[in-house]
Design goal:
heterodimer; A: mainly beta; Immunoglobulin-like; seven-stranded mixed beta sheet; globular; B: mainly beta; five-stranded mixed beta sheet; four-stranded antiparallel beta sheet
């Protein structure tokens, strides 16, 4: 069964450093998402991406964040200058089409900012 | 986006049927109701989706009354492995989903 993969599984970084989280969505999917989940809290929507552009973003997704689909298979989330409060689990998800199709989530990347 | 309200937590025992109700009083005409399950340190996983009446799949049933202001996820004969957080989401086809706090279900032996 096809699945969304994410690398690395755990990333430790120093405050102020840039990090890139990588995701490989399911190959025929067209819509891509990033979510984050701070330990013990709810899953928070960050951004959705379709046709090589952002279609929607939340108030969390400020100028420190960017997304890219550089090569037609990878989908990346970049945090330019990490803060302590960016420590969270980051989930990538993909969906074939908007609407009734389910979103398939990856296993997540745990980001720890020291 | 429609606001959803679910119980924070529920306990059950193996073999019992579990019903988790979600309230969404301001659901819009073009909104669908979707339930996801999340195990610790894993991404959410789709369970079921519906618009009205009843939907059933191999995992669960979803009951939606005529006014659509609430929905009930029914898990038949739960096992210990059903211990997870269950999220109710309401969104239109054109909108992206926003998760609430969810219901933490604990299944006891």
């Amino acid at each position: 069964e096809p699945e969304v993969t994410q690398t690395p599984s755990h990333q430790v970084t120093q405050m102020g450093q840039e990090v890139i989280l990588r995701c490989v969505p399911i190959s025929n999917h067209l819509y891509f998402y990033w979510y984050r989940q701070i330990l013990g809290q709810k899953v928070e929507f960050l951004v959705s991406f379709y046709n090589n552009e952002i279609s929607e973003k939340s108030e969390i997704f400020d100028d420190q964040f960017s997304v890219e689909r550089p090569d037609g298979s990878n989908f990346t989330l970049k945090i330019r200058s990490t803060k302590l409060e960016d420590s969270a689990m980051y989930f990538c998800a993909s969906r074939y089409a908007r609407g009734l199709d389910e979103q398939f989530f990856g296993p997540g990347t745990r980001l720890t900012v020291l | 986006l429609a606001k959803t309200t679910q119980p924070i937590s529920m306990d059950s025992y193996e073999g019992q049927e579990v019903n988790i109700t979600c309230s969404h009083n301001n659901i819009a005409t073009n909104d669908y109701i979707t339930w996801y399950q999340q195990f610790p340190s894993q991404g959410p996983r789709f369970i079921i989706q519906g618009y009205k009446t009843k939907v059933t799949n191999e995992v669960a049933s979803l009951f939606i009354p005529a006014d659509r202001k609430s929905s009930t996820l029914s898990l038949p004969r739960v096992s210990l492995s059903d211990t997870a957080v269950y999220y109710c989401l309401v969104a239109a086809r054109s909108n992206d989903m926003r998760f609430g706090a969810g219901t933490r279900l604990t299944v006891k032996p």
